[in-house]
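Tokens in:
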């Protein structure tokens, strides 16, 4: 059975692309077939680090978004879609005009709506909107990104969380990676695997021993959450 993973959250800066990169690396490490679509035209992370698996996707045209369903309707595969900020309006229009969730169920495709969150009010409100839109038809995965917030009390006390729980939403936590280490990975333009497995070269381009160790520990934690989800 194929699965579609729409990695959203709508607002910028919550870590959607980090989650997409982690899922991509998780599947590669486990030799699990996957293909990806990157909707960020300016600096798409999937295209930058996983160009052999991902391709660009312009969400402004319905026929472009149709490629997501086409990719999932063949051989069994995970289809990963990294949704840039402010793209979900087009995705919602595509899903509603084509009754995409109904079609996925008819074809035996699991479609997951990932909502990546920081600890702010906007993320909670956007979650409420997502649940109101799709209700019982949605398969929700809520990601509390500790790299973008420390106190998720507002979420835990919200009616949105209660409603999500009633609908069987999965909730996972993404631990924070040491900020200077994450910044260094970005400056080096490396995938998480390359960052954790490459010692510095002669020019000092690479992570030190303990930085690489921290990345490995962080990856193990994220992979444990994905295993718990069964993705």
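Residues out:
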């Amino acid at each position: 059975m194929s699965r579609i993973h729409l990695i959203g959250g709508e607002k910028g800066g919550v870590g959607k692309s980090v989650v997409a990169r982690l899922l991509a690396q998780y599947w590669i490490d486990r030799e699990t077939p996957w293909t990806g679509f990157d909707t960020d035209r300016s600096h798409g992370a999937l295209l930058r680090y996983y160009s052999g698996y991902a391709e660009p996707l312009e969400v402004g045209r319905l026929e472009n978004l149709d490629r997501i369903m086409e990719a999932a309707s063949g051989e069994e595969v995970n289809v990963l879609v990294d949704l840039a900020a402010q793209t979900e309006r087009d995705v919602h229009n595509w899903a509603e005009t084509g009754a995409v969730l109904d079609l996925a169920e008819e074809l035996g495709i699991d479609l997951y709506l990932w909502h990546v969150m920081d600890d702010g009010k906007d993320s909670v409100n956007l979650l409420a909107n997502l649940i109101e839109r799709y209700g019982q038809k949605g398969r929700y995965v809520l990601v509390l990104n500790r790299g973008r917030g420390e106190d998720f009390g507002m979420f835990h006390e919200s009616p949105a969380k209660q409603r999500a729980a009633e609908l069987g939403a999965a909730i996972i936590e993404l631990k924070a990676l040491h900020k200077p280490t994450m910044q260094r990975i970005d400056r080096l333009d490396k995938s998480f695997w390359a960052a954790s497995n490459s010692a510095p070269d002669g020019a000092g381009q690479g992570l030190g021993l303990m930085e690489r160790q921290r990345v490995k520990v962080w990856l193990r934690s994220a992979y444990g959450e994905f295993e718990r989800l069964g993705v």
